[in-house]
Design a protein that fits this description.
alpha+beta; Jelly Rolls; 2 domains; seven-stranded antiparallel beta sheet; four-stranded antiparallel beta sheet; 47% helix
């Protein structure tokens, strides 16, 4: 070995470079761990350099590029603390395995979803989330930088946390994932480019699969929020309220609230409001104590003709018919002397 390839202490330069790189990587891990401990807040911690707690906990070999990073790791039964990262995360869970993903919604309340492997979980950028592992699993983690996930998903994810219901049955997806997983921690520089190409293909395919199939938005309104909306609507049936007012009452944006409400209740907020008004109108008409015009105003209809039309379309009978039937029923009931 020539003099130029040696340094003091007879250590080859190549070995010294590798040792220095290892030191720098360990310092980087330590720095991120300190930030994770010191920077907790309600929204979690944004961990730099793609190093989320799963990577820190397993000392996984992280392969990075300008557009994405990925690693393979083994998750045992444990808790992953709340955190967030600026990349979109795609996690592929190999069977057997089970976990519960939790996150903070816009109202600051914690929501959760149980996931059983095999499964694909996608988390939107900047979304704080945590994970509790009930059963360990091999995991492929991919972090898509903004320019990549914006190119693949210009409209973004349909929900902050998404689970694809067909992913477990998609053979090409798991074949690609197995190729990436097979390299594991033994990836060397000569293989890194090849593995990265496969991982990029895997992330692209997973996103395309998301676009081709219906997905299950993990986020749904908590029961307490549904109850708040129901109570609000019941107290304001005579007022000229709309979806904006319901969203403001539970402190959600209108698009977000509308999507979450439909996921939880099965109908849109405005349809729910209409149904509640029609049910309240029928209840009042059956008492026989109100005219059609009075009932219309009590459910926020200033135009009696429009109210009668909507009522008939919804119930299949006119308001007048309901009143007449109520009178007949009242006459048929035995009088108490």
């Amino acid at each position: 070995m020539g003099r130029n390839n040696m340094v003091s202490g007879n250590i080859p330069r190549a070995n010294l470079r590798e040792e220095n790189q290892g030191i720098r990587f360990r310092k980087k891990l330590s720095h991120c761990a300190v930030m994770r401990r010191a920077g907790s807040n309600r929204d979690g911690v944004e961990l730099p350099l793609h190093l989320c707690p799963e990577v820190l906990a397993s000392n996984s070999g992280l392969i990075r590029s300008a557009e994405m990073s990925f690693c393979c790791c083994r998750r045992s039964s444990s808790d992953m603390p709340t955190h967030a990262h600026r990349q979109m995360e795609i996690a592929l869970l190999f069977a057997p395995g089970a976990c519960t993903v939790s996150w903070l919604n816009d109202g600051g309340l914690r929501e959760s979803r149980s996931v059983k492997a095999p499964a694909v979980i996608m988390v939107a950028p900047q979304q704080s989330h945590a994970c509790r592992w009930e059963q360990g699993s091999d995991v492929v983690l991919m972090y898509l930088e903004p320019r990549l996930h914006q190119r693949l998903l210009p409209q973004g994810l349909p929900a902050p946390v998404v689970v694809s219901p067909v992913a477990a049955r998609d053979l090409p997806l798991w074949q690609l994932a197995s190729v990436v997983q097979s390299f594991g921690l033994a990836v060397v520089k000569a293989q890194a480019r090849v593995v990265h190409l496969v991982a990029t293909a895997l992330s692209t395919y997973a996103v395309e699969l998301l676009g081709r199939t219906a997905v299950q938005p993990v986020r749904c309104l908590a029961n307490i929020l549904v109850e708040k909306v129901e109570a609000f609507v019941a107290a304001h049936l005579s007022a000229n309220i709309c979806t904006d007012d319901m969203a403001a009452h539970v402190e959600y944006s209108v698009p977000h609230f509308s999507a979450l409400f439909k996921a939880a209740v099965g109908i849109t907020p405005i349809e729910y409001l209409f149904r509640q008004r029609m049910e309240k109108a029928r209840e009042l008409l059956r008492t026989g104590n109100y005219t059609i015009g009075e009932v219309a105003k009590k459910v926020s209809y200033l135009d009696q003709a429009n109210f009668a039309k909507k009522f008939a379309e919804h119930h299949g009978v006119t308001p007048k018919q309901v009143i007449e039937q109520a009178r007949l029923d009242s006459a048929a009931r035995p009088k108490i002397s």
